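Is this the right way to post C-alpha cells for a design question? Let me know if I should format differently. Anyway, here goes:
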C-alpha cells in the first residue's frame, strides 16, 4: 500500500501534538452560570431533575458566585423565585424583589463577577405565562412596559447586563429606550432572540416553578421546524438595539447557531438548557456514559458551531476539568 505524503495521524499521536493543532478551545471565561435565587437564609435546595443545581437564598448565591470566580467562571445569570405571584408579575420589577436583592448583594460582596439578569414575567405570574393575559391570550404590547420596568429595576440594583427571554415582539426596543432614558445606556442587552418552543425546558420549569397554568407558549416562542424565522428574529432584535443574540436551546439547534454565526457580526450566545444538562447527568448516573467527558464534548460542540458565550449548568464542572489540564 502506498500512503500519501500527508498522514493526518502524525499530528494526533500524543496530547502535545493534539493540543498544538486544536482548532476550538473552551475557556471558563466563556461560560455564564445560571443561579436560582429564592427568599430565606442558608437555603440550598437541590433540584431533583438537575443534579448539582440548587435553589439558593441570597447569601448562598454570593457563596456560589465566589466559588465560580475561583474556577474562572466570571459571569452568572439570575432567575428569581418570588414569595408570591400575581396576574401581572409584580415581583419581577419591585425595588426589593428577590433578583434585585441578589444583584445588590453580589455587586457589593463579589464586585468582580459579571451579573446578568433574566428579564421575563413567567416566574412571577400566577398563570405562568411570560406576559399580561387579556381575553385568555398573552397580550404583547401591554407586556412591554412591564418588561422594561423589570430591566430598569435590575439596572438600578447594579446588574451588568439584562437578558430578555419573554419573546414579545418589540421588547428589545422598549427596554433599550427605557434604559437610555434613565442614564443606563452603558448596560448591554443580551436578547433571547431565537428561543424555540422546546420540550427541553422541563427541568427548568420545575426549578423555577414557572410552568404555564393553561395552554402553552407556542404562540410566542418559535416553532422548532423553522430556520429562516431565526434570521428574522435575530435581525429585528439587532435593529432594536440588542448587543448579543442568543439561541435557546443549544444542542438541538447547533445548525441555527452555525448559520447565525455566519450571517451576523454580533456575538452569539447559546443556552445549554436544563433538559440537555439533565440527560447527560441521568445517563452518567446510570453508568451509560462518562458524564464529565460528554459534558465537555457537548460544550465544545456548542462553541465549535459558533457560540461565543455559553450559558450552562455544567459551567463549574467543565471549568474544573479545563483548569486541571
Amino acid at each position: 500500500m502506498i500512503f500519501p505524503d500527508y498522514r493526518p495521524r502524525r499530528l494526533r499521536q500524543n496530547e502535545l501534538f493534539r493540543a498544538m493543532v486544536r482548532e476550538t478551545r473552551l475557556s471558563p471565561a466563556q461560560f455564564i452560570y445560571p443561579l436560582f435565587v429564592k427568599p430565606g437564609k442558608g437555603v440550598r435546595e437541590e433540584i431533583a431533575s438537575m443534579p448539582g443545581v440548587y435553589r439558593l437564598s441570597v447569601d448562598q448565591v454570593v457563596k456560589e458566585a465566589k466559588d465560580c470566580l475561583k474556577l474562572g467562571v466570571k459571569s452568572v445569570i439570575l432567575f428569581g423565585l418570588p414569595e408570591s405571584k400575581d396576574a401581572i408579575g409584580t415581583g419581577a420589577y419591585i425595588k426589593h424583589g428577590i433578583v434585585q436583592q441578589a444583584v445588590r448583594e453580589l455587586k457589593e460582596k463579589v464586585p468582580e463577577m459579571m451579573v446578568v439578569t433574566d428579564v421575563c414575567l413567567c416566574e412571577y405570574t400566577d398563570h405562568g405565562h411570560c406576559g399580561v393575559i387579556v381575553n385568555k391570550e398573552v397580550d404583547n404590547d401591554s407586556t412591554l412596559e412591564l418588561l422594561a420596568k423589570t430591566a430598569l429595576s435590575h439596572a438600578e440594583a447594579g446588574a451588568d447586563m439584562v437578558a430578555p427571554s419573554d419573546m414579545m415582539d418589540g421588547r428589545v426596543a422598549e427596554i433599550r429606550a427605557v434604559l437610555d432614558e434613565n442614564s443606563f445606556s452603558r448596560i448591554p442587552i443580551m436578547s433571547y432572540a431565537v428561543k424555540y418552543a422546546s420540550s427541553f425546558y422541563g427541568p427548568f420549569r420545575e426549578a423555577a416553578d414557572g410552568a404555564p397554568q393553561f395552554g402553552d407558549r407556542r404562540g410566542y416562542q418559535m416553532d422548532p421546524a423553522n430556520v429562516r424565522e431565526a434570521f428574522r428574529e435575530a435581525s429585528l432584535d439587532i435593529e432594536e438595539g440588542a448587543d448579543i443574540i442568543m439561541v435557546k436551546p443549544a444542542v438541538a439547534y447547533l445548525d441555527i447557531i452555525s448559520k447565525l454565526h455566519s450571517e451576523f457580526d454580533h456575538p452569539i450566545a447559546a443556552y445549554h438548557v436544563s433538559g440537555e444538562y439533565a440527560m447527560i447527568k441521568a445517563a452518567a448516573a446510570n453508568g451509560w456514559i462518562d458524564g464529565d467527558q460528554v459534558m465537555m464534548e457537548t460544550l465544545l460542540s456548542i462553541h465549535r458551531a459558533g457560540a461565543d458565550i455559553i450559558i450552562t449548568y455544567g459551567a463549574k464542572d467543565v471549568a474544573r476539568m479545563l483548569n486541571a489540564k
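Format looks fine. Someone answered above. Worth noting: The CA atoms of residues 13 and 122 lie 51 Å apart. The chain has a mean pLDDT of 95.
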